[in-house]
Specification:
The protein is an alpha/beta fold. It is built from seven helices and seven strands, in the order ββαββαβαβαβααα. The strands form two sheets. Strands 1-6-5-2-4 form a five-stranded parallel sheet, covered by helices on one side. The protein has a two-stranded antiparallel sheet with strand order 3-7. Helix 3 links the parallel strand 5 and strand 6. Helix 5 runs antiparallel to helix 6 and helix 5 crosses helix 7. The radius of gyration is 22 Å and the shape is elongated. It starts with 7 loop residues before the first strand and ends in a 5-residue tail after the last helix. The relative contact order is 0.14.
Length: 174
């Protein structure tokens, strides 16, 4: 079969019941929102395309539709499939967000992002530290002062040890 120049796409609403779908979003993204239909889920950074083709006996007769959040990652993955010699691959245009917009049946389990957990934890520490410094002991002012310092250093350096602590406490989400 001759290699095609560009990757084709399909609208989410055009998917048929028996179409093959590979979701390449992260585990967290998939856990929060996924298609309510049979599909494979392998995060893009864990996907071994040669093994996938071999293990699932993909055939050029049936297109493989790649899904991500907005369509950007699915395009990269589809191009890699073509590099491996599997050309009957399509991206799902607009990803899971467009699928939601078009009314496809989805499973939703929203959880807090790491950023939201970080903001909640920082706000709670500032609030509690301020109350404690007002009503218990002035030395508790060190709590909101420390949180302010952490937020400033994160904005300057882009790194924060506090996020690693949050990851330990909120492994399974809030």
């Amino acid at each position: 079969m001759m290699q095609e120049e560009s990757v084709q796409s399909i609208e989410p609403s055009e998917l048929k019941e028996d179409d093959l779908i590979l979701d390449v979003r992260t585990n967290q993204e998939h856990n929060e929102l996924s298609l309510n239909r049979p599909h494979w889920h392998i995060p893009m950074d864990e996907l071994n395309i040669k093994n996938f083709i071999k293990n699932y006996h993909l055939s050029e007769k049936t297109p493989l539709n790649i899904l991500c959040r907005t369509g950007h990652r699915s395009l990269k993955v589809a191009e890699k499939f073509k590099q491996e010699g599997f050309f009957n691959v399509k991206t799902i245009a607009g990803g899971i967000l467009k699928a939601k917009e078009q009314g496809l049946s989805l499973l939703e389990h929203p959880s807090w992002s790491l950023r939201r957990k970080f903001e909640f934890s920082a706000g709670a520490l500032i609030f509690i530290g301020t109350l404690l410094s007002l009503f218990v002991s002035k030395t508790f002012y060190l709590i909101p002062l420390s949180v302010g310092f952490i937020l400033m250093t994160k904005s300057i350096t882009g790194k924060c040890f506090f996020e690693n602590i949050i990851k330990l406490f909120f492994k399974d989400g809030l």
